[in-house]
Design goal:
about 100 residues, alpha+beta, 3 helices, 3 strands, about 20% strand
Amino acid sequence: MHKRLQGIQFKKRAPRAIRDIKRFATKEMFTKDVRVDTALNRFIWMKGIRNVPRKVRVRVTRKRNENEDAKEKFYSLVQHVPVADFTKLQTQKVSDM
């Protein structure tokens, strides 16, 4: 998050962080409908609007939309993954199928 929020004025940092997380999920999962979990939202806003955490570990999952009359067939759910240390972490792709 730190490199994405550098140069952004203080009162817009937390909302911009949420927007950037949604933009990242859209790019990675190819879905326009992105939903942020409440735990991730609380983690971003934990230290206030100005002091967004420097690093965030997230899990992005693509799910089928249960609503029949929805525009999009799939949606992405972004969840917070709490980690004690960020050293030697790598991207993990998990398939449920």
